[in-house]
Specification:
single chain, about 230 residues, mainly alpha, Arc Repressor Mutant, subunit A, Four Helix Bundle (Hemerythrin (Met), subunit A), 2 domains, 3-stranded antiparallel sheet, 11 helices
Length: about 230
């Protein structure tokens, strides 16, 4: 009897996870935009499930920082102001920039690592050429982009820094998607990763900082500058 109860609980939890993944994708595709209300009954009807897993999924999205629930009003997709995007990108540049320095100073990357990173760039370029809707292309590129950067994060021993980046992972992903939609050329954005690899190979800390800023903040040069982030140079 206990085994059956645990099995039902597991199946129910799996269902709420699937609903959460569905809602995340809808948010990243901007089918739900900042400020949009997520209606439990509507989502339950769309997915042909009860409201319980939808309710649990919305709580999961709250924890992930993608949804805000206001008492007696409902659950809404978070809205990003330019200042919010700036703050998220500043956190990322500072933390990831330090990781890049550690990779260079401790000589933590070898030719196999660079070959793997170049392969990820090639995969991104293939996504650019895909005959799919632009919003789907941006989400796919974003997934691969984060895979590229997570690979570098995980080559360091900065466990707490990695943990912080993973805590803001979903907000970072959404901010990057918003940024990518303002890009004039997705291909050029992808090719900026080659500069990151080049500067890592050349062990040029100053240039790796700038290439990171150029890549992360590509659509609005006034949003962030190297001097603002690194005032000591």
């Amino acid at each position: 009897m206990e085994d059956k109860k645990m099995s039902n609980q597991f199946n129910h939890q799996s269902l709420s996870d699937k609903v959460a993944e569905y809602l995340k994708r809808e948010i990243f595709l901007e089918n739900y935009q900042g400020g949009d209300r997520i209606l439990e009954t509507q989502v339950a009807k769309e997915l042909d499930v009860s409201r319980a897993p939808v309710r649990e999924a919305i709580k999961e999205l709250e924890s992930a920082g993608l949804v805000e629930t206001i008492p007696r009003k409902g659950s809404f997709v978070i809205s990003f102001k330019e200042s919010d995007i700036r703050e998220i990108f500043e956190i990322r540049v500072l933390l990831e920039g330090r990781m890049m320095e550690i990779l260079i100073c401790n000589d933590l990357l070898d030719e196999k690592d660079f070959a793997h990173l170049e392969k990820l760039i090639e995969e991104m370029l293939k996504i650019v050429d895909k005959d799919i809707p632009e919003n789907e292309k941006v989400v796919e590129l974003n997934d691969k982009d984060i895979t590229f950067h997570k690979y570098l994060w995980e080559k360091t021993d900065r466990k707490f820094t990695q943990r912080i980046l993973k805590v803001i992972y979903n907000q970072l992903k959404l901010a990057m998607i918003i940024d990518s939609r303002k890009e004039n050329s997705l291909e050029e954005s992808v090719k900026e990763h080659y500069k990151i690899i080049k500067n890592l190979k050349e062990k040029n800390i100053k240039k790796i900082r700038q290439s990171l800023i150029d890549h992360i903040v590509s659509y609005n040069e006034s949003l962030m500058s190297q001097k603002e982030i690194y005032p000591d140079i």
